[in-house]
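Q: How would the C-alpha cells look for this protein?
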Amino acid sequence: MISAHLHTALALAASGLPPLPLRAGKLPFGNCPACVDNACGGRPNMKTPGPCTCPAPCHGWAAATTDPHVLNSPTWARSWGKAAAVAYHPGGADLTVVDLDNPDAISWAQQTLPATQTVTTTRGEHWIYQGAMGSVNAVRPGVDIKSTMAYARWIGQGTGTMTALPDVVRALAGKEATAPAPRAITVPASAGGGECRHRTPAYLERGIAMAEQQITAATSGVHTTVYRTFLAVLSAHGRCGCLTDAHIARLFTAAQTRGESPRHCTDAWTNARTRLGL
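A: Here is the predicted structure in C-alpha cell form.
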C-alpha cells in the first residue's frame, strides 16, 4: 500500500505539477551520503535550473519530478514513509505562487493584485498565477514569491480561476533585486591556517543545516531565534576558522525567509560575535 503522501504526489505529477516530499518543519530532505558537501557536483546553492539527477530526493526544489517511476522508486519510498507533507516546484509547471503570510499581506494583495486561484494556508494564503518568474523572498512584509528554483507546500486545489502572472508581481521582484544583499562577514581564521581540527566537514555541514532548519521553522520570536542560532553556530565554529562566507550567507538567507532584513541579520551576527568576544 502506498502512503497518502505518495498518492498525492502521483496525482500532482499526473496533472503536471512536479512534487517532492517534505520533512517536519516544511523542509526538504537533506542530501543523501553521496551528495554531502556537494561531492556529487550537483546543485549546492540551488542556483542552477533543472532537475536533480541523484536517485534520492536531494537538493530541495531540484528533486521535484513528474516521473512516476522516480516517485515510486525504492530510494524515494523511504522518504515518502517519513514525509510530513508534499511540496511542488511551481516554476516547473510554469506557475508562480505569491505566498501571503499574514492578514496584512492578504489585505494588501486584495487591494493590489488581480484575483486568481487562492489556497488557504496555515497562516495566510497562496495566490497562484499562470507564468513563471524568479523566486524572491520578502518582497514586502509577509510576502514571498515562489516560482523557479523554489518549492511551495501542496495544501489543496483552492478556489477561484487562475489568471496570467501580472506585471505588478514581476515588478515586486525587480524592486527586491535592488535591495541590499545579505552581508557576508568573514570570521578570522585560526592559527592553524583556518582548518577546523576538532570537527569534521560533515559535522559542520550538519550543524549549518540544523541551524537553517531551526530558523526557518520559527513561527514566533524570530528575532530571538535568529540571534540564539547565530550564537550557537559561532560558539561551535567561530574560533576555529572553518566558517566560510558561503556558510554565513546560508544562515542569513534562512533568516530572511522568515522576514528578517539584511540589517537585522548583520546586527544579530555582530551582537553574537561581540558576546563571544570574537
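Residues 183 and 266 are 7 Å apart (CA to CA).

The two ends are 55 Å apart (CA to CA).

Upvote if useful.
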